[in-house]
Specification:
Strand content: 15-25%
Strand order of the largest sheet: 3-4-2-1-5
Oligomer: single chain
Shape: rod-shaped
Order of helices and strands: HHHEEHEHEE
Radius of gyration: 49 Å
Distance between the termini: 158 Å
Structural class: alpha+beta
Helix content: 40-55%
Length: 217
């Protein structure tokens, strides 16, 4: 009877580890791929943030430029020419309102009703021309006013001639002269820019029936 005895100790056998070199290599590759993917994501996020920052800087620069322009416009001194034009427009409005008031009073005082010639005068406004006084009578018309320049007087006469009451009428006389300043005591004259005073005449005066004058100049 024979019996085999194993004299090799189990401790001397070569052990096989659960994670060998191959498994460790695969794990290291996965970790490296994850790191690269995360680095790429961070790089993309950084690019997006940088683009947004550039756009915001451009918007801020544009807003600052517009603010500087508005500040410069707000601190710009008032134009003397614009101020003179505003004063001239205010004087013309006051003159026309006064003339309309005089015309209205004349109309109320006449028993014959609204005069067509007064209506024509009221609607013959020309920019840069204002009427200071007038005399209307059968076969006679006299107009006294002022204009910014001589050319506007011709335009005013043409506009007046388009109305039926003055259609075909020709002015037989005209006086025009550059207005002269009378000093600081004449506040309203000093407020006016350089202008021309004129007088227009048509026909001969016999019995004036309609007259009016403004309180301006």
């Amino acid at each position: 009877m024979s019996q085999q005895i194993n004299l090799l100790s189990p401790l001397l056998l070569k052990k096989r580890y659960a994670f060998g070199l191959r498994e460790m290599g695969l794990a290291l590759g996965l970790v490296l791929a994850g790191v690269l993917a995360w680095a790429g994501f961070l790089h993309y996020q950084a690019g997006v943030l940088e683009t947004e920052a550039t756009q915001r800087e451009a918007l801020q620069a544009k807003a600052q430029q517009e603010l500087d322009q508005l500040t410069a416009a707000a601190t710009r001194p008032v134009s003397a020419l614009l101020t003179e034009r505003i004063k001239s427009a205010q004087v013309q409005v006051a003159q026309r309102e006064a003339l309309l008031g005089v015309i209205g009073g004349t109309i109320k005082s006449t028993a014959s009703g609204f005069s067509p010639r007064l209506r024509a005068l009221a609607h013959s406004g020309t920019e840069g021309v204002w009427l200071n006084a007038f005399t209307l009578a059968p076969g006679y018309v006299a107009l006294k006013g002022a204009a910014m320049n001589a050319g506007l007087i011709t335009i005013y006469m043409d506009q007046l001639g388009k109305h039926p009451p003055f259609s075909g009428m020709r002015f037989s006389g005209m006086d025009a002269a550059l207005a002269q300043s009378k000093g600081d005591s004449e506040s309203k004259t000093a407020a006016l820019p350089d202008h021309i005073n004129f007088n227009l005449y048509s026909g001969s005066l016999e019995n004036p029936t309609e007259q009016g004058a403004t309180r301006g100049q």
